From TrEMBL:
GO terms for molecular function: metalloendopeptidase activity; RNA endonuclease activity; zinc ion binding. InterPro entries: MetalPrtase_cat_dom_sf_prd, YbeY. Belongs to the endoribonuclease YbeY family. The lineage of its organism: Bacteria, Pseudomonadati, Bacteroidota, Bacteroidia, Bacteroidales. This is Endoribonuclease YbeY. HAMAP family: Endoribonucl_YbeY (MF_00009). It comes from the Bacteria. Its EC number is 3.1.-.-. Zn(2+) binds at H107, H111, D117. Its cofactor is Zn(2+). Pfam families: YbeY (PF02130). Keywords: Cytoplasm, Endonuclease, Hydrolase, Metal-binding, Nuclease, Ribosome biogenesis, rRNA processing, Zinc. One of its GO terms (cellular component) is cytoplasm. It comes from Dysgonomonas hofstadii. It is found in: Cytoplasm.
Length: 137
């Protein structure tokens, strides 16, 4: 299957797509999943706010929204990423922009793998899984 990269109102970030796709597949495999079709939609804050309001009834900006359509052990989903928020988060947390971008990219995959981040305990688990995934990149 495939990992697809789209843009809506922004330029797709510069990274080696084949390497990124292989990394995503490797992380999925660590969680006993395989990649079906995952579509990344890179956008700006206005678009992610529109998606957040329309589909989740949330009236706030966010860095990522993941829509899951999984089938058994195969990952299928649409992942919206606001590059504006990724940039502001990298500045706020004093991290490299690309590191923040890769963290958010894999965050969506981890959601598709069933890892949540609503409670402090879940957030801790998510961060640990993100860090482990980033080491593979």
């Amino acid at each position: 299957m495939a990992v697809l990269y789209y843009s809506d109102g922004v330029k797709v970030p510069s990274f080696k797509r084949r390497e990124m796709t292989n990394w995503i597949k490797s992380v999925a495999a660590l969680h006993n999943k395989k990649v079906g079709t995952i579509a990344y939609i890179f956008c700006n804050d206005e678009k992610i706010l529109e998606v957040n309001k329309q589909y989740l009834q949330h009236d706030y900006y966010t860095d990522i929204i993941t829509f899951e359509y999984n089938e058994e052990d195969s990952l299928f989903g649409d992942i919206y990423i606001s590059l504006d928020t990724v940039k502001s988060n990298s500045e706020q947390f004093d991290t490299d922009y690309n590191e923040e971008l890769y963290r958010v990219i894999i965050h969506g995959v981890l959601h598709l793998c069933g890892i949540n981040d609503k409670t402090p305990e879940e957030q801790e688990c998510m961060t640990r899984c993100e860090n482990e995934a980033l080491k593979l990149l």
